[in-house]
Design brief:
Blueprint (H helix, E strand, L loop, with lengths): L5 E5 L6 E5 L8 E3 L6 E5 L6 E3 L5 H7 L4 E3 L1
Parallel strand pairs: 1-6
Antiparallel strand pairs: 1-2, 3-4, 4-5
Length: about 70
């Protein structure tokens, strides 16, 4: 049995919480919202995590630091 690594991303457009299994996700994979299909970010590996597809407002970045759930 392989160890599963999960990440959660909250869509800023519709507020849907998206759960992604990242343990076998290829680098550069684009992730979209499961509800509205908007781009959420790109997987950049375990150390960098998800990088947003679009610039994030400074207020959202400061709220996300230290949280396990990132809002993109």
């Amino acid at each position: 049995m392989s160890l599963q690594t999960l990440s959660t991303l909250t869509c800023l457009h519709c507020g849907t919480i998206n759960t992604v299994t990242t343990s076998e996700l290829p680098l550069g994979t684009l992730i979209g919202c499961s509800h509205c299909r908007r781009d959420l970010g790109q997987w950049c590996g375990a150390q960098l995590g998800f990088q947003p597809s679009l610039p994030i407002p400074a207020a959202v970045v400061s709220q996300a630091k230290g949280d396990t759930e990132l809002s993109f």
